[in-house]
Amino acid sequence: MCSFVSLSPDGATDLEKHLELLVVENERLKQELKACKTSLLQEAPPPACTATDCPHSQVRVGRINRQLEESKRHAGEMQRQLEESKCQQGEVEQQLSIRLRDCEEEMARQAARPHQVKYVTEIVEVESSGSQQAVAEAQAKSAALQEQLSLQRQLLRELETQLHESQRTSTQLRAQILVYEGEMERAQGQLEAEMQNLEEEKNRVIEDAFIRAESEMKAVHENLAGVRMNLLTLQPALRTLTCDYNCLKRQVQDFPFMLEKAMTEAKQEICQVIGEVSSANQELLRKYKREMNLRKKCHNELVRLKGNIRVFCRVRPVCRGEHDSAENMVSFDPDDDALLYLSNKGKLMTFELDKVFHPQATQEGVFQEVQSLVTSCIDGFNVCIFAYGQTGSGKTYTMEGVAKDPGINQRALRLLFSEVTEKAPDWDFKITVSMVEIYNETLRNLLGDNQGEKLDIKMNPDGSGQLYVPGLTEFTVQSPEDINRVFELGHMNRATACTNLNEHSSRSHALLIITVAGVNSSTGHRTQGKLNLVDLAGSERIAKSGAEGSRLREAQCINKSLSALGDVINALRSRHSHVPFRNSRLTYLLSDSLSGDSKTLMMVQVSPLVCNMSESVCSLKFAQRVRTIELGNATRRQWENSSTTSSPTHDIMISYALCSFRRSFQQAHCFHQMKTAELMPDRACTQMHNRCIQSGFEKCLHLYRKWNLQACSRVVPFHFSKP
Ligand code: ADP
Ligand code: MG
């Protein structure tokens, strides 16, 4: 009974195990079949193939064929395995049917047995108790066997079910294999058709290519024939070219020698031209120097004729809030811009200056008259421009001006910049600026750091005889912005030193010293000019008003320095051997800018107010004194008397008229010289020359007529009424 169903250690029977193996194998075969099918589908040929794809298609067809072979082989393998598994299954079936038969026999035997046992039991029951026990045991055994039997039957049923199942699976697999085989056959058919198509396509493409190649070949042959023809015609051209090439080669070989020769000739020519140019240059330079000297001479002459010391007068307008009937006090001559009339206590006083500016004169207009002086500083002249007059007469306005309408100081620096820039290609200029204040005869550096420091004026130790101020700050200015910065610093320093700037500034002299040093880049010629722009302290006579203490000292210092200035100018004009420069700090500091061929302009400021009448008279007298110096001592004195005493004689009038005429004539002569030197256009010179002579005559005639009228009318002479 135990050998009938052998159980494996894990509880499964051999049959079960075998069945499992079969199932697994079956599954694997299914998988492989599926993979084959997929690869077949993937390898299905494309719908159409172009002529150019032909070789590639052939390769593909070969590959597909190989795969088909492989698939067939695989299918055969599978078939074989299936056959084997069928065999195995048949064997298993056979074993199972044998076992089933054994089991049935056993069962039949077992069925036959209980009667025996029952019989034995009955006997045993009857016979003995021992036998009864044996019967009981036998019964128990029989029950156990019965149980085992039912178990075996159940197992048998299960095995039968499994057998049916595997038979069914096997049938299914067979059907599937058939299906796959059908599919494979179909795919093969398709492949073959495709291959045939491709083969046809290939043949067609090859034919086409062959035809094309033939026609191309024909064309190439034709071309070749053309090229051959060309070659034949080109040969003579080539021969000519070779000839030319050889010729050129020879020329190239000769070229360095020719070049050298040409260069030598060119060098000689250039040297000759350079020599000519340099000699022309020398000539030009000589002419330029001569012209420069002539220009300077003419300028000097012009200045000399105009006078090295010129006196202008500017009458300021009546300002807002000043109710004064000023119009009757100051009057001007419409024909002569050099005359100013003051009516003082019923007397009309006449002052002749170089130029009188009306109250309406603009800052620009005033500057136009002084700009020639400013520019002469570039030519190396020393120039002084003084603003003289009582406090409130407009000195600071004329020199500094207001922010919107700057005065001479700022305009001069701007003009210098523009002139220097114009000359820049030939000249290298450097403009430096210093600002000094003279208060109570002490010098203060307005651009320095230490405002408490008092400066001294010393003789330059280099033996040049020039004066210098040790410790005086000098700023080099290069732009209008620099000027503004310098002015700001100067003002700030001036303001910090006092409590009331207006009052303080009226009692001190403010000097702006501009030095212009230049070097001519071609000649190496050097120039240095100095422009001193001085806003003088108020000229009012404070001492007479009984000032005391510090006010008195201030007044004395101002008086001293202003009279020293007058004396110095007087001495210079009169060509005295001794000029009292050292009498004041102001004149000492400016000594080199006042002496020699330096130029001075005194701008006398006059207030139009009646209340300022006496100071205005004083200022104008000072101006007159300074100006008339140039007319010569005798004449000056007489004229001085005539203008203030209002009793001119006929001789004085004649002398004055002649003097005036002489000046006009000298001016005319100057224009004539300019014409000769070709410094001005011909026509302009002639015009100016004629105008000077005409104005000289007219002035003379005008004065004579005036005198004659007065003489005839026997009115107090020389009280000119306005024409
Ligand atoms: P000073 O420096 O002689 O004491 P200011 O220059 O300070 O005098 O002038 C006094 C006043 O008169 C200032 O308010 C100034 O603006 C004005 N002033 C002077 N001259 C003119 C002018 N030409 N045009 C307009 N205002 C002027
Ligand atoms: Mg002032």
UniProtKB/TrEMBL annotation:
Domain Kinesin motor: 308-629
Gene Ontology annotations for the cellular component aspect, listed alphabetically: adherens junction; centrosome; cytoplasmic vesicle membrane; kinesin complex; microtubule
Residues binding ATP, per UniProt: G389, Q390, T391, G392, S393, G394, K395, T396
GO molecular function: ATP binding; microtubule binding; microtubule motor activity
Main subcellular location of this protein, as a coarse class: other
Pfam families: Kinesin (PF00225)
Family matches, as Gene3D superfamilies: Kinesin motor domain (3.40.850.10)
Keyword hit for Transport: no
Positions in coiled-coil regions: 12-39, 135-208
Keyword annotations of the record: ATP-binding, Cell junction, Coiled coil, Cytoplasm, Cytoplasmic vesicle, Cytoskeleton, Membrane, Microtubule, Motor protein, Nucleotide-binding, Phosphoprotein
Cellular localization per UniProt: Cell junction, Adherens junction; Cytoplasm, Cytoskeleton, Microtubule organizing center, Centrosome; Cytoplasmic vesicle membrane
Topology of this chain in the membrane: Peripheral membrane protein
Gene Ontology BP annotations: microtubule-based movement
SMART domains listed in its UniProt record: KISc
Recorded family membership: Belongs to the TRAFAC class myosin-kinesin ATPase superfamily. Kinesin family.
General function of this protein: Minus-end microtubule-dependent motor protein. Involved in apically targeted transport. Required for zonula adherens maintenance.
Protein's name in the database: Kinesin-like protein
UniProt organism field: Salmo trutta
Gene: KIFC3
